[in-house]
Structures are given as structure tokens and as C-alpha cells.
Specification:
CATH architecture: 2-Layer Sandwich
GO molecular function: ATP binding
Order of helices and strands: EHHEEHEE
CATH class: Alpha Beta
Organism: Streptomyces litchfieldiae
Pfam families: HATPase_c_2
CATH superfamily: Histidine kinase-like ATPase, C-terminal domain
Protein name: ATP-binding protein
Number of domains: 1
Helix content: 25-40%
Strand order of the largest sheet: 1-2-3-5-4
Keywords: ATP-binding, Kinase, Nucleotide-binding, Serine/threonine-protein kinase, Transferase
Number of helices: 3
Length: about 140
């Protein structure tokens, strides 16, 4: 009999800065206890960066829009997808900020923490950024 996969964890949060710490806590707490020491900080930091970007660049808080997070294990990774309802064609990209810049390092951090990540358009509107963190780090 095949192993039944875990149901992905799903959260829909207001597109408001107060949702960032809620997302961070939710993702860290959704992990099995045995994985929290290894993956908790990485996934919480990814959630922080991706939710912040979704709120800043892809959502309109005054329209009561929501940011969606999905967390699931597959293929030796824990995957985090953060989706925004944005209608713009602006695709998130890694920036090269100078030393004095106060912003622009979020996707650099995502690129460093995640084994793989990508940006996907949503079927109707919006964007999803999906990042994977390996269950076990190789040497």
C-alpha cells in the first residue's frame, strides 16, 4: 500500500505587515518537532522574506487582499509557496544592492537558504514564489 502523504499546511493572511510574524510562527510551528531544530529557522526566515515581498510588491492592503502560504514535504525537501494576488507583470528577481542599501537583499537570502526556488504565475492572477529546503543538509 502506498504511503499517504501529509496534507499541506495552508494559511491565508491579510496583506499587512502584522502578518509577517504570524507567518513566521505558523511555518515554524507546523514542522514536526524532530525537524524544528534543523529546518525551523530556515523556513521561518524564508516565510518572513517571501511574505514581506508579497505584501510590498504583490498585494494591495487597502483592498483587503490576502497572502497565501502553503507548506508541504516532498522529494526530500520542505517546500514553502507564498502567493500574492498582484496583477502586475513585475517578476521578482535577485537584486545586487550596494553596501548602503536598506532593501533589496530578501531574494539573495532566499537564494542562499533554498536548494531550489522559482517564481510561477498563478492561474488567474498573482504570483507564487516557491522555495525548498532539504530535509538533510549534505556535507
Amino acid at each position: 500500500m502506498p504511503e499517504i502523504p501529509l496534507v499541506p499546511a495552508l494559511w491565508r493572511l491579510p496583506a499587512h505587515p502584522a502578518s509577517v510574524p504570524r507567518a513566521r510562527r505558523a511555518v515554524a510551528e507546523a514542522l514536526p518537532h524532530r525537524l524544528r531544530p534543523h529546518l525551523g529557522n530556515h523556513l521561518a526566515l524564508l516565510a518572513t522574506e517571501l511574505v514581506t515581498n508579497a505584501i510590498r510588491h504583490g498585494a494591495c492592503p487597502e483592498d483587503d487582499e490576502l497572502v497565501e502560504l502553503v507548506l508541504w514535504p516532498a522529494d526530500g525537501h520542505y517546500w514553502l509557496a507564498v502567493s500574492d494576488p498582484g496583477t502586475g507583470n513585475r517578476r521578482p528577481a535577485v537584486a545586487c544592492p550596494d553596501a548602503d542599501s536598506e532593501n533589496g537583499r530578501g531574494l539573495l537570502l532566499v537564494d542562499h537558504l533554498a536548494t531550489a526556488w522559482n517564481v510561477r504565475p498563478r492561474p488567474v492572477s498573482g504570483t507564487s514564489v516557491i522555495a525548498g529546503v532539504p530535509l538533510h543538509r549534505g556535507g
